[in-house]
Design goal:
Length: 252
């Protein structure tokens, strides 16, 4: 024996990778306002299509209390419209119906409504307000529309008879990088996600919407014709139980 001892080898610990924190995806919330007098398959199918493309975590239907652009006396009670919207969306897992405008008739403007949701969901949430092309064309006349543009993304639903103008004009008015054209088969989750990093955007879409008119539904009810192909069964039942639109009159 030499008396020399071998130094013990240092204990080693297995190499393990430290967990890499992953960013929590920002919540995406779709906001669909409307009179919904009554809500019909046109609203529902379009909302479902947009929810799939924009990958919403939540989809809020927002019945208006007093549409600023319509004759309030000819609009059915907000509570009936709210009830029909709830019934129509029961089968949509991500759908909720908000009473924010019904509870605050003194604040009928969209900028106010979006500000309420921004406060509720926080600054990190992606809020998408959906509107038709006809509404978008008149946007510069809306109350505090510039505040609205800076508060949420807009999804504009174009149709052949309701165009929004050429892209050059829109880019000049709203900013080159703000307007994203998803028409012509360019709508996809990837196309949306790749444009969400900076600022608020205006997404132009041409997703298919059923050609259904609330006016035609009300007329059909007043004439005793079936509306089964226009509205969900529970909504049809509600309309008949409460006598809405019968004889051309609304129930307030």
């Amino acid at each position: 024996m030499t008396g020399r001892t071998q130094k013990p080898k240092p204990r080693t610990t297995p190499l393990t990778s430290a967990p890499v924190p992953t960013a929590t995806p920002r919540r995406r919330v779709g906001l669909l306002g409307g009179t919904f007098d009554p809500i019909h398959y046109g609203h529902l199918r379009l909302a479902e299509s947009l929810a799939a493309i924009f990958n919403f975590n939540e989809l809020l239907f927002i019945p208006t209390y007093s549409p600023p652009h319509k004759d309030f006396d000819r609009v059915t009670s907000a509570y009936h419209r709210y009830a029909m919207t709830v019934l129509a969306t029961l089968q949509m897992d991500i759908a909720r119906v908000s009473m924010v405008e019904i509870f605050a008739p003194e604040r009928p403007y969209t900028a106010d409504t979006v500000a309420t949701f921004r406060k509720s969901y926080g600054p990190d949430a992606h809020l998408f307000f959906m509107m038709g092309a006809d509404s978008f064309v008149s946007l510069p006349k809306w109350e505090r529309y510039e505040t609205l543009l800076d508060s949420c993304h807009l999804i504009v639903m174009t149709r052949p008879k309701y165009e929004v103008g050429d892209l050059a004009t829109l880019a000049e008015r709203y900013g080159t990088r703000r307007v994203i054209d998803l028409r012509g088969g360019r709508a996809s989750q990837q196309a949306v996600t790749s444009n969400l990093d900076a600022g608020m955007h205006v997404f132009l879409t041409d997703l298919f919407a059923l050609d259904v008119s609330a006016t035609d539904i009300r007329q059909a009810v007043s004439e005793g014709r079936s509306i089964a192909r226009f509205v969900p069964p529970l909504v049809e039942r509600y309309i008949h139980v409460y006598g809405l639109y019968s004889n051309g009159h609304h129930t307030r």
